[in-house]
Write a structure and sequence with these properties.
Strand content: 5-15%
Length: about 375
Amino acid sequence: MFHTLYFEGTRNCNLNCKYCSTKSNVKTKYPDIPTNKIIERVFKPAWDLGTRMIDFSGGEFLIRKDAFTLLKEANDIGFRISLVTNGKLINQKMIDKLQNTLGDNLLLSLGVNSFDEKNIETRDYEAKKTLDIINLVERNGIGINMVVTIGKFNADTFEDTISYIDKLRLPYNRTPFVPRNADCGSLMFDKETMRNKIHPTLLKYYRGYVSYIPFFLNEDEYFKHSKQNREVSLVPTNPSVGCWVGSFYGINPEGEVAPCPLLLDHVSGGNVYKESLYDILYNSDLFKNIVDRTKLKGKCGTCKYNYTCGGCRVMAYYQSGDVMAEDPTCFIEDLSEEELQELEEKTYKNFKNYNRMTAFGGVFKKD
């Protein structure tokens, strides 16, 4: 379990996104945790516990004065490195510095909510600038992952956005829009939007299966390819599918540890600068309960896809206040047996393609 850490290294940022999940903006300045404390309390324990990839994020992580010290330290320890960036600081000089520090051990994660003029309303960054960055990064041989935050504000253009990303042959993940640090709950997508606009698009493109929920994959079919079931691993990790809770975790800029980055600032198993990472991940009530999917409530607890999907813990929390509640955006109970069987067959077909992609990329490989 826990192969990936989403590490928010700072709340400071160089943009003013209207709905920023970390409450970051240009004017507000936040104190950062010292370099050595991060190395000793986060990096080294994470490696010892089997975490092999770190997603460095913020705010804007590259704003930290010691950003390259931390990147080099993580690289030297052996972590695979992903840098989640808004792209504003990415130019040839920055790329040269990143490659001199990390070699080819770098994946850049860039966000776009749509490729039209409305992107700037939620991202505070023009989509065209992101496309220019993609071209620059690809010319330098660096891998790219796209992040699309999906809510009611861009549900109608989601198909166009994902189609465009797929034509670029880039992997992506769909992140649900939630009111983590902004009063904007009315913009969250609902079950009808998931069924009619989001889910049909996700079915078409296997490169986005890292964040596919609901995930109608038969457990036996998953075991056939991964050799994992709940007797081997509490959650699927080879590769991770459905809800990633239990295979990754997030740490916010103050050190609070949550099962998902979008739960940070609201749900915590403990503070890594006050408690050991091991105790938080393996002994806290939050983590012990949430990785045991038999304890999920409502339809998620009894669902035939309980193991391979698990429901979105984030949507459950923000709509009910209970991280163990059923996923309110899942529409499985509205499907006929024939419809469900068709969705299962499509899910399995695309899962096989996704599984080959992740195996080739080595994202989930073991030492």
